[in-house]
């Protein structure tokens, strides 16, 4: 089924493909300067404060003020345990090298995320470990003009595991349930969800870039109830970081995990095998799908929910195929 | 005809403060405090009747005094003073509530019932939503301890509300009540010099100040003000959330992170020698945390707490004195460091 969708791109008349490529190049040229122009005036002001445009003394003073606030407990967290200061100053700085240097992620269409008010970003999920979610968070945080903070919805397994649950809560993640999602959306936050869940992240390498079933589509009714737009997001590159060639199901069951990945390097090389492959990533945000025109009772209409879910899913799948056609190689 | 209010749990600090507060209320004619032991504090001129709510005598008290408002505050996690263990507490909580509700059902004068419940009724589990509303069903029912008592009590109260629809029933689910004279297991835990915590978990906690607790009980036990409704179930908590790591830093008490099984074992050991009532429920709360939604409290009940969670904790910290690592000292050290560095 999914293969059938790939074929049209290959069979397109050459002239049209060329025209489209030219158009795309034009688009790229038009888009590319935008983030640069945006980031120039902002960088010294707010973001990456410690790294650019400040003397060593100022940096030390800033670091000490931060340390002082941390050790005396003088900071705020929200109801979900989100620690904005820690996320901005520490967690994002730890993730940024992976995002910029290791995966060399390229972001497209970040302007599709509204500058204010709630929005639900729906993305594909892949890569055995949920690095795609974290990179998505860095992408939104670093590239959006309004510096929006992405609040991810995570699987319950995340909140069972020690240390990980603590970090996830502090980074602003919360449990993927309708109550939490709706509360965040109503507060006007940008919420990220990966409706494929474990089916997407733990799928074999052979099935890469084939979207799995989108749960029960609960995310659509939540967005509809909160009246926020749905922003489809396609992430290319995450599928190849840990090529999962096998799944040790018995071991997974013993450990209480949804799957136990076997990759060409893991677990054979031990911890070294857990190093992700340095693939080149592209994160594309699509046109927002408005949910405003629907009456309040529409959230209880299963047919409409299925249709909207399919629409979002198709958009992401098509964008994935488009990005794959454009991609020169997995690693460059 | 003025009101006659019966308050259970009068020998507790909070009960005593509540009685003294409503004694000053001009609409209330008579306040009757009830408890199994005489209170050590004064009750501001209110009557005290020594009656054990676990005994049927409570029905006679209700019938003879013509009580119209019952404020049930004798629902507690810890025994009063040193006597009695967990068994006695559980009996007072559950059997006491059953007897009291039975007595209320037989008393035609009773028009209003206020229950001091607890947010522990929601339990604490990693699979729960981050914020509990009054209608959230708990994912895992509390298996024992105070939380299970509260679940059972609320069950009996719902049964009573069905049988006596003419009585306005108000269930107040309090987050952790803290204040200068709070006597809860959590306050005991906070006064330990070094806090054993669960490694890899940082629970979110909410607090209510004692003054706010008394004020909201007063609102619930009086006639509803215009535009508000004071029967039903309400979560009561101060604004904002504090993490356990954050409050340990603010109070200057170091933490000792332990593996979860070790904490459970240590809790059992401490309980056995009677140092602290560190029940499994308490450990779950200090592992996964609990946050409740308070929109209903604001909009329906019309109560706006005076203290936020942070202010409540600051008040409490002031009453407890500094810990081993006072935050002021640490701040001074950092300031000194800041003074030395640029000079270099």
Automatic annotation (TrEMBL), chain A:
Keyword Acyltransferase: yes
Ranges of compositional bias, category Low complexity: 25-36
GO molecular function, one term: acyltransferase activity
Compositionally biased region (Basic and acidic residues): 37-46
Pfam families the UniProt entry points to: Acyltransferase (PF01553)
GO CC annotations on file: membrane
Domain Phospholipid/glycerol acyltransferase: 119-238
InterPro entries: P_lipid/glycerol_AcTrfase_prd (IPR016676), Plipid/glycerol_acylTrfase (IPR002123)
Keywords: Acyltransferase, Transferase
Protein name: Glycerol acyltransferase
Organism: Streptomyces chattanoogensis
Automatic annotation (TrEMBL), chain B:
SUPFAM superfamilies noted in UniProt: NAD(P)-binding Rossmann-fold domains
Domain NAD-dependent epimerase/dehydratase: from-to ranges: 5-236
Pfam families, per database record: Epimerase (PF01370)
InterPro entries per the UniProt record, alphabetical: Epimerase_deHydtase, Lipid_A_modif_metabolic_enz, NAD(P)-bd_dom_sf
The protein's name: NAD-dependent dehydratase
Species per Swiss-Prot/TrEMBL record: Streptomyces chattanoogensis
């Amino acid at each position: 089924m999914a293969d059938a969708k790939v074929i049209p791109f290959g069979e397109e008349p050459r002239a049209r493909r060329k025209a489209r490529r030219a158009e795309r190049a034009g688009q790229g040229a038009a888009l590319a300067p935008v983030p640069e122009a945006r980031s120039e005036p902002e960088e010294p002001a707010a973001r990456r404060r410690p790294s650019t445009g400040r003397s060593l003394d100022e940096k030390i003073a800033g670091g000490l003020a931060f340390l002082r606030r941390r050790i005396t407990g003088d900071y705020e967290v929200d109801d979900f345990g989100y620690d904005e200061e820690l996320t901005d100053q520490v967690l994002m700085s730890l993730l940024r090298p992976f995002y910029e240097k290791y995966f060399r992620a390229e972001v497209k269409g970040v302007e599709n995320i509204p500058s204010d008010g709630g929005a639900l970003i729906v993305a594909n999920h892949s890569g055995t470990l949920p690095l795609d979610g974290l990179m998505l968070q860095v992408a939104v945080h670093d590239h959006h003009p309004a510096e929006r903070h992405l609040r991810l919805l995570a699987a319950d397994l995340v909140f069972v595991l020690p240390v990980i649950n603590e970090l996830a809560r502090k980074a602003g993640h919360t449990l993927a349930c309708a109550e939490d999602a709706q509360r965040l959306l109503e507060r006007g936050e940008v919420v990220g969800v990966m409706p494929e869940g474990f089916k997407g992240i733990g799928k074999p390498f052979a099935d890469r870039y084939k979207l799995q079933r989108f749960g029960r589509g609960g995310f659509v009714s939540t967005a509809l109830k909160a009246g926020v737009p749905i922003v489809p997001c396609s992430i290319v590159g995450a599928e190849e970081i840990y090529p999962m060639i096998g799944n040790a199901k018995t071991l997974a069951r013993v450990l209480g995990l949804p799957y136990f990945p076997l990759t060409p390097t893991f677990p054979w090389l031990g911890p070294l095998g857990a190093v992700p492959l340095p693939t080149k990533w592209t994160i594309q945000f699509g046109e927002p799908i408005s949910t405003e025109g629907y009456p309040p009772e529409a959230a209880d209409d299963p047919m409409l929910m299925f249709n909207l879910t399919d629409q979002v899913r198709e958009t992401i799948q098509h964008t994935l195929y488009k990005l794959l056609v454009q991609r020169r190689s997995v690693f460059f | 005809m003025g009101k006659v209010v019966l308050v259970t749990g009068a020998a507790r600090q909070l009960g005593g403060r509540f009685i003294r507060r409503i004694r000053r209320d001009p609409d209330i004619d008579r306040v009757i405090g009830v408890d199994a032991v005489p209170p050590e504090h004064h009750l501001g001129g209110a009557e005290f009747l020594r009656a054990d709510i676990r005994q049927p005598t409570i029905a006679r008290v209700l019938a003879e005094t013509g009580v119209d408002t019952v404020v049930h505050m004798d629902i507690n996690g810890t025994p009063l003073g040193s006597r009695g263990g967990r068994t006695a507490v559980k009996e007072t909580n559950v059997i006491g509530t059953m007897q009291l509700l039975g007595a209320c059902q037989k008393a035609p004068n009773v028009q209003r019932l206020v229950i001091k419940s607890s947010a522990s009724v929601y339990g604490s589990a990693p699979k729960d939503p981050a914020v509990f509303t009054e209608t959230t069903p708990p994912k895992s029912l509390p298996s024992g301890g105070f939380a299970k008592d509260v679940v059972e009590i609320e069950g009996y109260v719902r049964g009573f509300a069905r049988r006596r629809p003419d009585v306005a029933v108000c269930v107040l689910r309090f987050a952790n009540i803290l204040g200068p004279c709070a006597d809860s297991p959590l306050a005991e835990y906070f006064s330990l010099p070094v806090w054993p915590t669960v490694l890899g978990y940082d629970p979110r906690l909410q607090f209510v100040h004692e003054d706010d607790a008394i004020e909201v009980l007063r609102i619930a036990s009086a006639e509803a003000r215009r535009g508000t409704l004071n029967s039903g179930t309400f979560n009561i908590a101060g604004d904002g959330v504090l993490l356990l790591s954050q409050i340990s830093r603010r109070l200057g008490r170091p933490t000792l992170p332990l593996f979860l099984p070790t904490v459970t074992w240590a809790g059992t050991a401490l309980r056995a020698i009677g140092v602290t009532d560190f029940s499994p429920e308490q450990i779950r709360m200090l592992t996964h945390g609990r946050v409740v939604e308070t929109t209903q409290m604001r909009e329906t009940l019309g109560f706006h707490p005076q203290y936020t969670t942070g202010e409540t904790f600051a008040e409490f910290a002031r009453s407890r004195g500094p810990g081993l690592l006072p935050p002021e000292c640490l701040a001074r050290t950092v300031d000194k460091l800041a003074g030395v560095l640029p000079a270099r």
